[in-house]
Amino acid sequence: MIEPYMGRQRRRRPTWGLWAGAALVAAFFVALWVVSQFKPKDPGSRAVRYVTVAPGSTADEVALTLQRAGVIKSVWPFEILSRWDKSSTRLTAGVYRLSPSMPLSTILDKITRGETAVVRVAIPEGATVQEIVARLVRAHIGHLNQYQALERHPLPGMPAPAKGVRDPLEGYLFPATYSFPYGTTPREALTTMWRTFQHRVEKGLYAHSHSKLTLAQWVTLASIVQAEDSSGTQATDVAAVFYNRLAAGMRFQSDATVRYAIGHPVAGGLTLNDLTVASPYNTYQHAGLPPGPIDNPGLAILKASLRPARVSYLYFLSLRNGQILFATTYQQHLANIAKANATHGQ
Q1: Would residue 34 count as lying in a domain?
Q2: pTM, whole model, 2 decimals?
Q3: Membrane-spanning residues where (predicted)?
Q4: 149 and 215 belong to one structural domain
Q5: What single DSSP character describes residue 307?
Q6: Measured CA distances, 251 to 163, 248, 272, 327 (Å)
Q7: pLDDT recorded at residue 31
Q8: pLDDT tens string 191-201
């Protein structure tokens, strides 16, 4: 008996193979996504975020802070990484300068090491308080009006200003390159400079000098030397001139003090009219030291002003090329002036 034709029958393929393949594909993409979460949020970003890690923050809290600041993609990668390398217990409080372009490992390393954000400000030797304030303001450390209020009174421990002192802080803000923590206030910045002066100058130099000058007098004299010989190459000779004039009761007749008295930059040489400016800082009109420093001298000039050269010079003339001509008598000084004029001050 011939059985009827039932048609071609299809064999049913097992479905587990399809599911396994789909699972592998899904796992592959999940793995890619997981790996991507540990990479920078925005590799090409130039944005900067200042992020505050509060004292006692847990890894979870820090991660949430970073995510809200837009620095990392997700919370959990930071949590996992900080626990994996056991850095979750070593997170340091502070303000951090971070960017979405940073790898997660770099961000964690900064917070673990305590590499908090700093603002670097270079204060050159011979800068006045007004010039220092301008640099601090440009570095976003406070506003001008905040400094104006602080400048009216000396900081704790500073010499009491003599009558006629324009700025009680002048002379006592040590010139150096400072790294201020982000968020430093104007008072904190000025106090740091004053404390540096106390440590390096007052205690480091003056306390062991046996100088006959008071601290204020010495710094005032040094500030004039700084202005007259900014290079410091002949500072001990310049200092000697002022010591000799002081001992002889002569007026300093320093152009630098007149420029300070005028109170604004003067291009070129001073005129005869400039020399008559009414100010206690005008050493053409007033004998002896001015009431206070005219700038903030550097360490080398301060040292030179403690140990002036043993010379009898009473006069000096600064040439345009930086050379300084010294003289003991007025006749010698006139000869130096004639020499300078003959060479056009070169």
Answers
A1: no
A2: 0.79
A3: 16-35
A4: no
A5: S
A6: 19, 9, 16, 16
A7: 46
A8: 999 999 999 99
